[in-house]
Amino acid sequence: EVMERVGSVKQQLQRLFGEAFRDKFPDELDIVPIITPCKDLRHGDYQCNNAMSLFAKIKGRVPEFKKPQAVGQAIMDSLPDSEMIRGCTIAGPGYVNVTLSTEWMAKRIHNMLIDGVETWAPEPPVQRAIVDFSSPNIAKEMHVGHLRSTIIGDTLARMLEFQNVEVFRRNHVGDWGTQFGMLIEYLFEENPNWEAAPTEAIGDLQEFYKESKKKFDADSDFKERAQKAVVSLQGGEEKYRKAWAQICETSRREFDKVYLRLGIKLEEKGESFYNPYIPTALELLSKENLIEESEGARVIYVGGITRPLIVVKKDGGYNYASTDLAALWYRLNEEKAEWIIYVTDVGQREHFEMFFAAARRAGWLPAEEDKYPKVSHVGFGLVLGEDGKRFRTRATEVVKLVDLLDEAKNRCKATLIERGKAEKWTGEELEQTAEAIGYGAVKYADLKNNRLTNYTFNFDQMLNDKGNTAVYLLYAHARICSIIRRSGRDVEELKKVGTVDLAHPDERVLGLHLLQFPEVVEEACTNMLPNILCEYLYNLSEDFTKFYTNCQVVGSPQEISRLLLCEATAVVMRKCFFLLGITPVYKI
Ligand code: ARG
Q: How far does residue 256's CA lie from ligand 1's centre (Å)?
């Protein structure tokens, strides 16, 4: 278990201002303190922005307040004494600017070094969440869209876990549906010996899929046999189940190559898992009178969208939507998840909106979208090639993700060898560093953009050691580590005997930035926008550079304090890397 949490500075200020509000405005218990960092540090470190809206609510009723400024003043006067605040001022229409006590800031950073950065973790929004991410389809390729889902989903899960939320990382693989009849029948007919050597019989799954589809489209007798095979599979016939399991296993082995490289942990509960729950789920929706008949299909009309959500197809089969409804029911009722996050491309937005709306109408979810239990669709844009079109390596073929990741690593390795590292490092060090930088670069290039925008995949750009790239940031971190190493001091010892001091303005700016780490994680997590954390990390390295340029560390009278500040920066950078799924390097 972690040490006692102190949470974020912002949360602490919110509590203080909350007390002031209750004290001064006991009739306005619903107001939530709005605290933001000051944009211009000359005004203060944080500001409270409630005065104007509060004034609008109470004016007339409370005649002593003639202007918003007076409300701001009253808030300021009621603020309880706290060691964290050095002073406050009122600005504009009642903003309360807060300047933190520099000694308090320094102490908090020092404590973090001793007790660990986990003590800074923000209050968890929920106890248990599900992140549904990656989720490729069996027998089809795992494409760059799935790569984005994998990278973004993993980061969101990590951010929640940092806040001590119990996270179920779910791989909702497409492992059910009519295409399996075709695949199984093809396996039986083309490879009668499939049971003896299943992996070889299937071979390259993509090829296998293509060939069976070709036969399916060309040969109507085969098509009929394939449709019968679906029935046998769904009826649970042993031989069919076995073939299905083999095909899934072959796919899984391919997916795992990607997960292994990227260090992704997730638990598969594919579409097939929820299949038995579909009738129950539909029954419940039926009871609420939500399901109607339309052109032979069974559908749900949801407000705003004219096209209904089909939940039972004309042929009586279930589909993507019925599965997602059953999965949602299972996650809410069996798994007791309070927040369910789905990470897919924005193209699927309507699907999610529709079945979320159906669940709301059925009373499975609260009518207010921001109340828990809550569902969120985290959509993302396309990955583009240099030509501005969907990313592919050759004109016709999609990119194989494993090859893509290997190329990133190999390029990094070549650069490291060029820089003479092969002579200085062990083979293992070279490999590990190349992997950390290569895979880190791919992840960061994805995460640093607002997820909704399309971005262009470019190796030269993402592997550049200048600019806002993982390479630059990993090097910046390694450089800090080497400053500490070369000082010849033992940091653990310094933590015990030394103190942190933020006397120099650039030290204080860096210190404030460090303190803002937990609230940035909270913001990135609440809005499900990892780019907010990337931006924080990049700015942190810039603040560090400024500090390091203007404040001599080794050999100065403040050497100990400044080394501790270096260490604190490295600790927070590493936590950022960790949350982004990037492995730090210590030597460059
Ligand atoms: N398998 C789907 C695809 O490749 C993604 C599944 C997302 N998760 C879900 N519960 N619908 O597009």
A: 17
Question: What's the rounded Cα separation, in Å, for the pair 224 and 444?
Answer: 48
Q: How far apart are CA 584 and CA 588, in angstroms?
A: 11
Which atom of ligand 1 lies closest to the CA of 327? 10
What confidence tier does 206 reach under pLDDT thresholds 50, 70, 90? confident
CA 379–ligand 1 middle distance (angstroms) = 12
State pLDDT tens for residues 444-481: 999 999 999 999 999 999 999 999 999 999 999 999 99
**Probe target for ligand 1 pocket from 143, 272, 328, 344, with the most ligand atoms within 8 Å of CB:** 344
Distance from Cα 406 to the centre of ligand 1, integer Å: 26
Q: Kind of pairing, strands 455-456 and 383-384? A: parallel
Pocket of ligand 1 (CB under 6 A): 132, 135-137, 172, 174, 324, 327, 342, 344
Bridge partners (DSSP) of residue 71 are none
Whether the ω angle into residue 63 lies within 30 degrees of 0, i.e. cis, is no
All structural domains of the chain = 9-100 (3.30.1360.70), 128-174+270-384 (3.40.50.620), 179-251 (no CATH)
Q: Is residue 252 exposed (0-12), middle (13-18) or buried (19+ Cβ within 10 Å)?
A: middle
Q: pLDDT tens digits, residue range 267-305?
A: 999 999 999 999 999 999 999 999 999 999 999 999 776
